[in-house]
Design brief:
919 residues; alpha/beta; three-stranded antiparallel sheet; 31 helices; 24 strands; cobalt ion binding; cobalt; Vitamin B12-dependent ribonucleotide reductase; EC 1.17.4.1; nucleotide binding
Length: 919
């Protein structure tokens, strides 16, 4: 399909040598350097940098170090071919060669990618681990609980993540055989959380991720729901009381459960009780008898309130999950991986791969159905072959995976595909096209799985689950025929999908299926960057402007290339396209763009920015594609800061009504210590507009205003990331800061001397008339170690000591209006704002609230001019912050320090490719 007979894929492209030098964009220091690496000329700088740093094996500077993309692809593909030949997948050597060349071509041209563990391990001396997603199990015994700790630690050591359901552990309201009271699962979570916190930094490839789940009928479910929200409250209360709550502080051990995603597993009985306003029984783990009852609506409200406060717990819908389960005779699905896309048997794993959808969109807007079908066939075949030679972290996981052969084919770039097709993400047409593509992918995957079963046999557990597996295949096929197309493209794709499902059933009912699971929608973080995707997984575009690295170093702000393609699809002329793109480059959004019709605005709606997609828009997209996914979807529903508890409750309820398997939300700034979003001040904008011409600038000579011999001062002790210090600030008698002294205790003479010199420099600047606001704007958000939690109740988190000091000075010496412009507030002011917003929004319909977009830009019109991207941003997220003048709730990369961007329910760093979960 992709290759030419007699021509090797490598001979079809132009290769070039590059120097991969990864630098810290803030200070220019070199993080990684490998010169003379070989890539095709069409690979972006970012993709080459990430593949070189993440996936090339061998010590840098040694002959064993890989230096060409050819070596990397050959290492993986030739291993797959050899295993396929060994295990009888090919009828003749010529077939094996075609398989090898097709796979090579697709990887070379970024048509798809395996998940990261394949690139890390396959073809090396390391264990051949190919899976990124794991599910463990825990029984109600101390041996099992300790095994859980050990197994989780082994998975974390390799940089992967795992999920577990703790509902088999008896509750704290039940007795032990000795007559004592059980500890309960929430208590045992504390030990696992401490283990994850210790091991997470030891992974060679990425930070560990974990998921903890508890069933809604477990007697400890209320304690579980409030666990993380209560810890957030505890941090505030203990700091206010003077306890040492700094990272590494003597009292920090009281803050637990911060290293896992939590989810509550609801069932049909509970949801029926919620709808009826009835009571719901909580059942003991030993005999299943009811030992307590709760008001279902009240419990659901507690779940929504906790998620509103700190984004945890998420929700999983057990009845939907197990209704689509292909292997119920073996056991129920009780848990998921950390990102919630893999859901299958306990003690199992899933091997992922993702297709780049933009590679199948033709210039005329049609979708290359035949190429897509053949590509899915090839990738599924390769993924199944990998299980034949794969290694696993535990024998239990290896045994289950070999018996049930779970695969997770998926895709990336859906958001870009929809925009390029001129379809809004939150539209009937967008959802119809997404559903059609997803159905075609999964139908083809299962059809090929049936064909593989006819050649090398069905999965070992198929016999006892044949009826259930066939029933689920029919459910998928029926859902596909129920999709109503809205255009020619999705009509053709749906027709092809129907054909694939018919063949799937025809073949599979005769010979069975090779795989108990075929598809999931993963975050596609690192591999999305490897394939130069504009969007990850099922997500929409992050924003219309992005941050692009350039050959030879440096970077620039560009408008996503999907935008002009979408404009041409919508019928705009080149002159109009140029004008609209220029407007977007300047403003970061399309509102009031010259010549752009208002009815086309929704096509360019993004996850963040001036016109962001409504929360229900995300939920509806997930609902459209869920019936065509074997597993589930890694995605977080973004909600505005003004959203209420009732809004969260409705989202969780609608997710169940719409047939989702799992759902998680994130409300802007819900985490304690997150920066409060604040638009840039109109005053600054006015100053920028009235800036005099260079030739008219008058240079004034400043005059120093010295402090009197006796002046008022105050001293604040502080702790930032384990570093303790003292801040003494002296004022003029007529008010106004005039002097600063900084003392860092236990930090060494060098740092103490630097802080003394810095204090003198700041003090002299203040006395010469430099406004405190200027210092605050320059030094806040500066990031370096030590950083983290502080012991100041008004400043919960600090990006550095400098960040903390100038936030503290702003709170002590600047009036409220000036601080508001800088986005710096006391804890009481933040609480008052949230309370006022919640009261103002009470009773507002969620759909109406989420679909309404502000009429004015949330950033000044000249934000892009006033904060040039190369000097103010190190990633697309930071660029977006500069454009819209608002802080984004995204973590800093633990490897290189730049701000990460969302990828499904995880985050990915554009600088180095690190992720916070599956990839």
């Amino acid at each position: 399909m992709w290759t030419t007979e007699g021509v090797h894929p490598y001979d079809e492209v132009t290769w070039e040598r590059r120097d991969v030098v990864m630098t810290n964009w803030r200070d220019g220091s070199i993080n990684f350097e490998q010169r003379g690496v070989e890539y095709p000329d069409f690979w972006s700088v970012n993709a080459a940098n990430i593949v070189t740093t993440k996936y090339f094996r061998g010590a840098v500077g040694t002959p064993e170090r890989e230096w060409s993309l050819k070596q990397l692809i050959d290492r993986v593909v030739k291993t797959y071919r050899a295993a396929g030949e060994q295990h009888g997948y090919f009828a003749a050597p010529a077939d094996a060669e075609i398989f090898e060349h097709e796979l090579t071509w697709m990887l070379l041209h970024q048509v798809f990618s395996f998940n990261s563990p394949v690139w890390f391990n396959v073809g090396t001396q390391s264990p051949q681990q190919v899976s990124a997603c794991f599910i463990l199990s825990v029984d109600d015994s101390m041996d099992s609980i300790l095994d859980w700790y050990k197994e989780e630690g082994l998975i974390f050591k390799g940089g992967s993540g795992s999920g577990v359901n703790l509902s088999r552990i008896r509750s704290s309201k039940e007795l032990l055989s000795s007559g004592g009271t059980a500890s309960g699962p929430v208590s045992f979570m504390r030990g696992a959380d401490a283990s994850a916190g210790t091991i997470k930094s030891g992974g060679a490839t990425r930070r560990a991720a974990k998921m903890v789940i508890l069933d809604v009928d477990h007697p400890d479910v209320e304690e579980f729901i409030e666990t993380k929200a209560r810890e957030e409250h505890k941090i505030r209360a203990l700091r206010d009381a003077g306890f040492d709550m700094d990272l590494g502080g003597s009292d920090i051990v009281s803050v637990q459960y911060q290293n896992a995603n939590n989810s509550v597993r609801t069932n049909a009985e509970f949801m029926a009780a919620y709808e009826a306003g009835a009571r719901f029984n909580l059942r003991g783990r030993q005999n299943g008898e009811a030992i307590a009852s709760v008001d279902a609506k009240e419990l659901f409200r507690k779940l929504a309130k906790a998620a509103w406060e700190c984004a945890d717990p998420g929700i999983q819908y057990d009845d939907v999950i197990n209704d689509w389960h292909t292997c119920p005779e073996t056991g129920r699905i009780t848990a998921s991986n950390p990102c919630s896309e893999y859901m299958h048997l306990d003690n199992s794993s899933c091997n992922l791969a993702s297709l780049n959808l933009m590679k199948f969109l033709a210039s005329d807007g049609t979708f290359a159905i035949d190429r897509f079908v053949k590509s899915v066939e090839l990738v599924i075949t390769a993924m199944d072959i990998s299980i034949c030679f794969a290694d696993f972290p535990t024998e239990k996981i290896g045994e289950t995976t070999r018996k049930y052969r779970q695969l997770g084919i998926g895709y990336a770039n859906l958001g870009a595909l929809l925009m390029a097709s001129g379809l809004a993400y939150d539209s009937v047409g967008g959802r119809s096209l997404a559903a059609a593509i997803t159905s075609l992918m999964t139908g083809t995957a299962y059809r090929r799985s049936a064909e593989l079963s006819g050649v090398v046999g069905p999965y070992e557990g198929y016999g006892r689950n044949a009826r259930a597996h066939t029933r689920v295949m029919r459910k998928h096929a029926a859902a596909s025929t129920a999709v109503v197309p809205t255009g020619d493209v999705d009509t053709e794709i749906l027709a092809a999908a129907t054909t694939q499902w018919q063949k799937c059933l025809e073949i599979g009912e005769g010979v069975g299926w090779r795989n108990s699971q075929a598809s999931v929608l993963a975050p596609t973080g690192t591999i999305g960057l490897m394939m130069d995707c504009d969007t990850t997984g099922v997500e929409p575009d992050l924003a219309l402007v992005k941050f692009k690295k350039l050959v030879g170093g440096g970077s620039m702000q560009i408008v996503n290339q999907t935008v002009p393609r979408a404009l041409r699809t919508l019928g705009y002329q080149e002159e109009q396209v140029e004008a609209i793109v220029e407007f977007i480059a300047e403003h970061g959004h399309v509102v009031d763009a010259p010549g752009l019709k208002t009815e086309h605005y929704p096509v360019f709606d993004c996850a963040m920015g001036e016109r962001s997609i409504a929360p229900m828009g995300h939920v509806r997209m997930m609902a459209a594609i869920q019936p065509f996914i074997s597993g589930a979807i890694s995605k977080t529903v973004n909600m505005p800061e003004s959203a209420t508890v009732e809004d969260v409750e409705r989202i969780y309820y609608e997710g169940w009504k719409l047939g989702l398997k799992a759902l998680a939300i994130y409300r802007d700034n819900c985490k304690v210590g997150q920066p409060l979003s604040a638009a840039k001040s109109k005053k600054e904008e006015a100053k920028a507009e009235t800036k005099p011409e260079p030739e008219k600038v008058i240079e004034y000579r400043p005059v120093r205003k010295r402090l009197p011999k006796k002046r008022p001062s105050e001293t604040v002790s502080f702790s930032v990331g384990g570093a303790e210090g003292y801040l003494t600030a002296s004022s003029y008698p007529d008010d106004g800061l005039g002097e600063v002294f900084l003392k860092m205790s236990k930090q060494g003479s060098t740092l103490a001397g630097v802080m003394d010199a810095f204090s003198v420099a700041i003090s002299i600047g203040l006395q010469y008339g430099v406004p405190l606001e200027t210092y605050v704007s320059k030094f806040t958000n500066m990031r370096f170690e030590p950083a983290g939690m502080t012991d100041d109740p008004d400043i919960r988190m600090a990006a550095s000591v400098m960040d903390y000091i100038f936030r503290r000075l702003a709170l002590d010496f600047l009036p409220y209006d000036d601080r508001a412009e800088l986005g710096i507030f006391t804890a009481k002011e933040r609480a008052a704002q949230i309370k006022a917003e919640a009261e103002a929004e009470a009773g507002v319909d969620l759909t109406e609230l989420a679909s309404s977009a502000p009429k004015e830009a949330s950033a000044p019109a000249r934000a892009a001019e006033s904060v040039p991207a190369p000097r103010a941003a190190g990633s697309s997220t930071e660029l977006l912050e500069a454009v819209q003048g608002k802080a984004a709730d995204a973590p800093l990369c633990f490897t290189c320090g730049t701000k990460m961007r969302p990828a499904g329910s995880c985050y990915v760093c554009e600088g180095c490719g690190s992720t916070s979960g599956c990839s």
